[in-house]
Amino acid sequence: MRLDITHILTDMKNVINEHENLYELDGLVSDAVQYVLMYPKTLDFPLALTEDECMEQLKSLLNSIQDDQSLGDRFHEFFILACGGLDDPRMRDLLANLLVWSLDERESQLKTLREIGLLPPDNDLCLAKYIKSESSSSLPSTLSRNSNDFGQLMMRCHFDALPPYVEANELQPFNERERAIHRNFKSSYEIVQNAIYALLGMGGKYLKKNLNTGRLALHPRNKSRLKFAQKSMLLRLAEAGFFHDQVQKFSSFTTDYSSLGSMSQAFKSRLKQELSDYRGQVSQLQDILNNYRETQLQLYVDRRQNWIHRRHEPMTLLRLVTWYMKPLFRLQWLTKIASDGQLKKGGELASFLYNYINTGDPYMHDVAKDLLTGCCSPMLRMISNWMLEGNINDSYDEFFVESLPEVGADRLWHDKFRLRLDMLPKFISLDLADKILKTGKSINFLREICKVDDAVKGREHLKDIINNRVSQIFSFVADTKWHAAIETCYTQTSKHVMDIMVGPHKLLVHLQGMRSYLLLGQGDFVSIFIENIKGELDKLGTDIYNIHDLSSMLDAALRCTNAQYDDPEILNHLDVIVRSPYPGDCGWDVISLQYTLQGPLATMLEPAMPTYKTIFKPLWRMKHMEFVLSTKIWKEQMSNAKVGYVFIH
Length: 649
Prior knowledge:
Elements: H1 5-16, H2 24-37, H3 51-65, H4 71-82, H5 89-101, H6 106-116, H7 121-138, H8 148-159, H9 173-199, E1 207-209, E2 216-218, H10 228-251, H11 262-296, H12 317-340, H13 346-354, H14 362-389, E3 401-403, H15 412-416, E4 417-419, H16 430-449, H17 459-468, H18 481-502, H19 507-517, H20 523-532, H21 534-537, H22 547-560, H23 568-571, E5 574-578, H24 587-590, E6 591-595, H25 599-605, H26 609-648
């Protein structure tokens, strides 16, 4: 402890001129306070400058010396820290003036100190007597001015000059001062630590959680220790903890409702990932606070280092409030989205999330896209599995393609699979969904009906693109690699189906045969066939029994016309049938041609056969009318004409 005011001013000057460490300023201010307390009347002396005016002068001086414009501000911060706990503005003004006076000349300093009463004559006399008496022989050679013994002796010397109302124990506040600074730092550390806990929804010394609302409120027992600004910032930071708890609740939400599908689980997994990222950021803040605390506990390590370069920014409530705005916005939107979408599933959940992408807010777009990307990963695997393997792994009915187990293989092409429109996401158009449906349906058709595998070439490459290009599915223009892979699968599969049906199964040949015989396009055959069975056609429907005779007449008509040159595959599928007659039906009503299909052709064309039969009926009646006109009415008219001609002549 320095009890010589001139030495205190010299050390202050060294600190300002960077000859001493800036951290020495704390001890110098403490020594100056102890010295001033020995002369309390000096606090009433009218000073020319206030604390703020003194600091402005010093800041201007320091900023002019160094290129670093923040040097003066840092010195001011250290002075404020050193004066922590001093509530008397007179003392603070005097300390600031002492710093300014330390830069004056020696004579000017002594004159000023005597004027305000900090260097009274009796003090000079006491010091002179002490130094003279001790310098003769009683002072050990090893005793220095900085030793404890010398300090005690100087303390006794100064006690003699104290006013009677100043007690000796008031001179010990150097240790009290040190403890006050420690308490101040500890209190600041506890407040910031409590704020970091609040970011995670946890209470502490200054915040307590309300079990009913789930929010953090000021602790009734300790809130009086906080300033108004600290209370306000703590409560603002506590909002982030509340929304953190809300997101955590929704991410672990369970229900018996069937919304617990794979896409819903992926959505919750993404929420948990968001919480993990947020907690990682909070842990970084905790590391900064811990490092700053360790630094403050070792303030005097490496004293020779210039104080200007010892930059250790403290973690404050203001820095936390500045940081938390962006995470708070994200947590608020995560809470809203999770709350509104907790009972949705599958494509419905994907469409719900997709609505937030088109809000026009780029930050909201990023939040929704991250959630949608995580949510749609199971759906893309379903699409990949369906388009490349023909399988539907959908235990929770959340895929937009569904299989009807009650439909048999004979209706596989048309009725076995269909779109589930309520599960179709908005970002997948009906045209694209139809291609996805037909691709998987074609693979099932080839595998189950045609007994053909490996419908898609480069399956592994396409699978990798479809599964791992999640973000491209949301593109407004279908020009991404993901859409190109879907188009490739659809094109290859459709071409393979056409090659199989047109090649080995002769689809076009059979279509031509159905046109020639069911639609009566083979005119010579139809005329000969009707001529051969006209006896059966004129009978009542109940009198037609022998179907074998009709079949032989059909064969005879085929052999007598150009139909004999058709593909035998067509002729083998052509047959004549007799329907069950209704009262009043004749042969024309019950006898008709039939084209029988089998295998893949029957699966693909079977739904179209009723249409062919429907068209065959009016065409058959037209042939009936033509036959009646040509064989009966026309002949009778010609016979009557000949008879009339003979009668006239």
